[in-house]
Each structure stands twice: as C-alpha cells, then as structure tokens.
TrEMBL record:
<dbReference type="InterPro" id="IPR036890">
    <property type="entry name" value="HATPase_C_sf"/>
</dbReference>
<keyword id="KW-0418">Kinase</keyword>
<dbReference type="InterPro" id="IPR001932">
    <property type="entry name" value="PPM-type_phosphatase-like_dom"/>
</dbReference>
<dbReference type="InterPro" id="IPR036457">
    <property type="entry name" value="PPM-type-like_dom_sf"/>
</dbReference>
<dbReference type="InterPro" id="IPR003594">
    <property type="entry name" value="HATPase_dom"/>
</dbReference>
<dbReference type="InterPro" id="IPR039248">
    <property type="entry name" value="Ptase_RsbX"/>
</dbReference>
<dbReference type="GO" id="GO:0004674">
    <property type="term" value="F:protein serine/threonine kinase activity"/>
</dbReference>
<dbReference type="Pfam" id="PF13581">
    <property type="entry name" value="HATPase_c_2"/>
</dbReference>
<keyword id="KW-0723">Serine/threonine-protein kinase</keyword>
<protein>
    <submittedName>
        <fullName>Serine/threonine protein kinase</fullName>
    </submittedName>
</protein>
<keyword id="KW-0808">Transferase</keyword>
<dbReference type="Pfam" id="PF07228">
    <property type="entry name" value="SpoIIE"/>
</dbReference>
<feature type="domain" description="PPM-type phosphatase">
    <location>
        <begin position="136"/>
        <end position="330"/>
    </location>
</feature>
Length: 334
C-alpha cells in the first residue's frame, strides 16, 4: 500500500502536509470540494503539531477507497479531550485549536490522547462509490521512511478473494529503493493470490528472484465463518495478538528472511489462534520499538485500527529507520 509520512517541526511543513493530502485525495478521484475539505483539515492538523506537539508526524494513508490522514506526536497530550473539541478552546500544552472543525470536515474522526504521553488524531474521507460499511476484519496501517530516503522499505497489503482475507507486512533489508523493491516483490504475491495458503505464499516469496534483496515478512489470514486467525512469519517482525478480555500473546516468527537468501531449510509453519469480534492483531517492523505494553494501553483498543497504528508509529517509532505498523481488529469496539 502507498502513502506518505512527514515529520512536522516547522511552519514550512504545514504547506507540505496540505499538498501531500490534497494530491492523495485527487488521486483517489475525490471531487474538488472534498479535496478542499481534506486540505483544510490537514493544514489544521499540521498547524497543531507545529504549535503544541513534540515529535509530530503527519501521515497520509490511502487504502481500499479510503483516505486516512493521521497526526501523531509524543506529547504533551490532552488532559481534557472533550473540552479540547470545543470551538475556540485552547490551553497551552493541548491540541485544542480547530479540532471541532477537523471533525466536521472529515467523514469520520477519532482521537486518542494520554496526558504526558501524546495524541493521535484520525481524519478519514471516503472516495466516490467506496463502501462505507466497515470491513470484517478491519485493517489499517501507518508507515514512515528512514530520514533522507524518498521510499519506505517497509510495505503492507490487505487482499481478499473467495471469503479469505490475507494481511501482510514486509520489511525489505536496508533502506531506500532496493528495500522498497524487495518489500513490493513480497507483498505482490499476497495481492495476486490472497486465498493461497500461508505456506504457499511464503514459498513463493522464497523462490522469487526478481528483487536483489530479501525481506522479513509477517502474514495473517482470516476466513469467513472461521473463528481463528492463521499466522506465519519469517524474520524479526513484532506480532501481538490481543484478546477481547485483555489477554495478549506474542506470536513468534521463524528466523531468517525470504527472497534471494535462503533460510537454511527452515520451514515457516502457520499457527492458528482463536479470533472473534473483540480480537486485535498488531504487526510491526523493527523500526518501531517492541517495548510497549498492551496491558497498559487497553484503552487504545477502543479506537479505530488506524488510530492505533498511528499511535504505535508516533509514540514508539524509532524515527531513524523505516517503520510500519499494521493493525487488524475483529470488527467491534471493546
């Protein structure tokens, strides 16, 4: 999936953020009036990051006929989110200005904030003719290219066919165009054949000689009317499964990489775990620290998957490497 991320630290980044979002809206086929709404809301989000936030990122994420714009930061966070939504409300150290206007301009809006930790705001627009009914499972992602690189070496895809949904995260070795090509080669197999078994998809990635570098991958598969998720991974991606009762488990990948460099005969075998409407699956590359505690942030999983992905990237991204977070929800809020 494509998208763009911008570190927002000065006023010059406000116009850049506006341009990124407006271009994505036009490429999604949105009419001029809607493009202007996207641009206006994005300008306000970026302005708030400049004025009030530390470590601010502005993310533009098009996917499945939807355009998400995320503003995420590392603090100071909001003490009173409800008050901050009122027009004209502003207190030093909060993202108060314009949030009500952003919510009115967006088709969907979400906000997650913890005082002393940071804030993530989601504004979403639907393209013409897109399906506004939530997909089951719901999938969203956020990614960031290493500083100085034009392309992100991490990629993700969600593809569906015949009642099967397959979600994949790929982290190409290194940075830049070579890493991006390796990730694209890996995710293309999922896009082309989402109903194939995870074992077959990994084998196809292993045999693919089109990319000059390998990649680490994490794949999850869901089948209609089947209360399980299948997971298979190769490499060092972090993958956590969170149950509706708050219990959580780390799913372990097979060591190695896929692609030109083989894994010395080690076979990646899928594992099955229970899945229901309150389950969550988090997959992220090593550009995001794994030192986050699901038990301490269960309130995050009352929000949209895109908000959770943005929070992970903003609050726990290393910001010196390619990074990508993919978040899958079972469908209902906890």
């Amino acid at each position: 999936m494509s998208g763009a991320a911008l570190a927002v630290t000065g006023s010059v980044h406000v116009s850049q953020a506006r341009q990124l979002a407006a271009r994505a809206a036009r490429e999604a086929g949105m009419p001029a009036a809607r493009v202007e709404r996207v641009a206006l809301a994005t300008s306000e989000l970026a302005t708030n990051l400049v004025k009030y936030a530390t470590g601010g990122l502005l993310l533009v994420v098009p996917h499945e006929g939807v355009l998400d714009v995320l503003a995420t930061d590392r603090g100071p966070g909001m003490a009173h989110v409800t008050d901050s939504m009122r027009d004209g409300f502003s207190t030093t150290g909060t993202l108060g200005i314009g949030l009500g206007g952003i919510r009115r301009n967006a088709d969907e809006f979400d906000i997650y904030s913890r005082y002393g930790e940071g804030t993530t705001v989601l504004a979403r627009w639907f393209g013409e003719g897109s399906d506004r009914e939530p997909r089951i499972p719901g999938v969203a992602a956020a990614r960031y290219a290493a500083p100085g690189e034009m392309e992100c070496g991490d990629s993700w895809v969600v593809a569906r066919a015949g009642g099967v949904t397959t979600v994949a995260l790929s982290d190409g070795l290194g940075h830049g165009p070579g890493a991006a090509a390796a990730s694209a080669a890996a995710t293309e197999h999922v896009r082309a054949s989402p109903a194939s078994s995870l074992t077959a998809l990994v084998a196809a990635m292993d045999a693919d000689m089109t990319a000059h570098r390998g990649a680490t991958v994490a794949l999850a598969q869901f089948r209609e009317h089947d209360p399980t998720v299948l997971f298979c991974g190769v490499g060092n991606s972090t993958v956590r499964l969170i149950a509706g009762d708050g219990g959580h488990e780390t799913l372990v990948s097979t060591p190695g990489i896929v692609g030109r460099r083989q894994r010395s005969g080690r076979r990646a075998s899928p594992v099955a775990r229970p899945w229901d409407a309150r389950s969550w699956l988090i997959m992220h590359s090593d550009g995001i620290s794994q030192r986050w505690n699901a038990a301490e942030h269960l309130d995050a999983f009352e929000h949209d998957p895109a908000t959770v992905a943005g929070w992970l990237l903003g609050a726990h991204g290393r910001h010196r490497d390619d990074a990508c977070a993919v978040v899958v929800s079972g469908g209902e809020r906890m």
